[in-house]
Write a structure and sequence with these properties.
By secondary structure, the chain is an alpha/beta fold. The protein folds into two domains: 167 residues, Rossmann fold (3-Layer(aba) Sandwich), CATH 3.40.50; 132 residues, Rossmann fold. It contains twelve helices and 14 strands. The strands form three sheets. It has a seven-stranded mixed sheet with strand order 3-2-4-5-7-6-12, with helices on both faces. A five-stranded mixed sheet has the order 9-11-10-13-14, sandwiched between helices. Helix 10 links the parallel strand 13 and strand 14. Helix 3 packs parallel to helix 5. It is globular and about 65 Å long. The chain starts with a strand and ends with a helix.
Length: 316
């Protein structure tokens, strides 16, 4: 696999390209243009960027007002603050009022690493999934990021885009078709399925490569959209493989894993299943990679989880 840029870099570059062609595209930031890689955007298009300071509630309120006037607005701020301080504004001013703001959470998950639990966004999937009329997209690589930003421009509903700041490996051929709400299978397999979202998709693919050497066939699915959810792809994996593992850079409570568990139960599937994510605790201190490794979101950790689930299936 070839290493690319961070998803935040690709987000900023793509948005600048699009905004140079469409003056209705506006960016609203909360003292975060530097961390969001939007300095070149501000230098090139100073009339299309608005700075509200460290005031996330104002950020969302201003964005909603601009969207109601027909502007295509990207509200950009660190995910950990944007989806907690401004949750009421996201719920009422954006979703309830049906203003198609593009809420952009940067430095998401545990991207801030050693800054600790106060700066980690391990709640955003859970909180936003419960709000009607907002879609949720967490791209896995540069390709998914570019496609998601392009799709978001004219998306008819409010949408939350979640980006990290670590350089990502390219996972998809250039001719891949991306669609919000439709998962992408990046590795075929018939023994076990790993369904991942966001940056952990790379770890799942590396785990599949380890398992392949042991004659264990592992399907890897990039579930880049958590809402609307691609139930069809999940149920197909449940029919065609013997175990399912979900992988997310989020609390094990309320995210991808619990979404899959609920759907599998409602459709009367019973097979070995494991949620891999951040336990219900304050995270250990370390870099993103160190935190991933500690909680088993590593190639070997995921491979071992797959071995254990398949052993359970054989013993059942």
């Amino acid at each position: 696999m070839e290493l690319g840029q961070s998803n935040q870099d690709v987000f900023a570059e793509t948005l600048l390209e699009l905004a140079m062609q469409d003056h209705n595209i506006l960016v609203v930031t909360s003292d975060s243009r530097g961390s969001a890689k939007l300095v070149p955007f501000g230098q090139t298009l100073p009339d299309q960027i608005i700075e509200v300071g460290i005031a996330e509630q104002n950020l969302v309120g201003v964005s909603a007002g601009l969207a109601s006037a027909g502007k295509k607005v990207f509200a950009v701020s660190p995910a950990c603050f944007l989806t907690t301080r401004a949750l009421e504004q996201i719920k009422n001013d954006v979703a309830y009022s049906d203003n198609p703001v593009k809420i952009v959470g940067i430095s998401a998950g545990v991207s801030y690493g050693a800054l600790g639990s106060t700066h980690h966004s391990l709640h955003d999937y859970a909180a936003l999934r419960t709000i009607n009329n907002i879609d949720i997209v967490a791209p896995a690589d540069n390709f998914e990021t570019r496609e998601a930003v392009q799709a978001a421009i004219n998306h008819p509903r409010p949408i939350y885009l979640r980006f990290g700041k670590k350089p990502m490996y390219h996972l998809h051929p250039l001719d891949t078709k991306f669609e919000i709400g439709r998962a992408l299978t990046i590795h075929e397999g018939h023994d076990v399925t790993m369904i991942a979202t966001g940056e952990p998709v790379t770890r799942a693919l590396l785990a599949a490569q380890i398992l392949e050497k042991e004659d264990i066939s592992c399907r890897v699915i990039s579930m880049h959209t958590l809402k609307p959810f691609d139930t069809e792809t999940l149920l197909k994996a449940a029919r065609e493989t013997r175990a399912i593992i979900t992988v997310e850079e989020h609390s094990v409570c309320g995210g991808l894993g619990e979404t899959c568990a609920s759907l599998l139960l409602r459709h009367r599937f019973c097979l070995p299943f494991q949620i891999v994510g951040i336990p219900d605790e304050y995270t250990v201190t370390g870099s993103q990679s160190e935190i991933f490794d500690h909680y088993g979101i590593s190639a070997e950790g995921l491979a071992q989880t797959a071995r254990q689930l398949l052993q359970m299936e054989r013993q059942a």
